[in-house]
UniProtKB/TrEMBL annotation:
The keyword Signal applies. Keywords: Signal. PROSITE patterns: PROKAR_LIPOPROTEIN. Residues 1-16 form the signal peptide. The keyword Signal applies. This is DUF1735 domain-containing protein.
Length: 137
């Protein structure tokens, strides 16, 4: 019995020592982030009476529009905290759209009631992150 146990232990140790482990490496998904600072006098009003601010984002290429991921966040406290857009804060609904080379951030009444104006932030930081992604059909 001792010989059997000894042989079993030696065989298990040899198997453990000679077996190979496979390491898996994951690629880091490249992402770039830009921060823009805007003041109330830089906002405009569109045909639907919605306040907006346009951001020139030359890094926003066709690749990101067609396949990548575009995230927008806003900060009202000098970048101490950020809120992911879309969001509604203090009675203002923030949303965005984008096209190659630009992002437009909207501020509007959350229930879209006619004649209601919303307060535009006096000072705002806008963070835009662009992330590569694999498109699967």
């Amino acid at each position: 019995m001792k010989r059997f146990l000894l042989a079993f232990l030696i065989g298990t140790a040899a198997l453990a020592a000679t077996s190979s482990c496979t390491k898996e490496y994951y690629d880091v998904v490249p992402s770039i982030t830009m921060v823009y600072e805007r003041t109330a006098n830089q906002w405009g009003v569109d045909d639907f009476d919605t306040d907006y601010v346009d951001l020139d984002v030359p890094e926003l290429r066709d690749y990101y529009v067609n396949q990548g991921i575009i995230n927008v966040a806003i900060s009202f406290d000098n970048e101490k905290t950020y809120f992911a857009v879309p969001t509604t804060l203090d009675g203002v609904a923030y949303s965005y759209d984008y096209t190659t080379g630009s992002v437009r951030l909207y501020a509007q009444d959350p229930i879209l009631e006619d004649g209601v104006s919303v307060p535009i932030p006096e000072h705002l930081f806008i963070k835009i992150s662009l992330t590569e992604a694999d498109f699967v059909q």
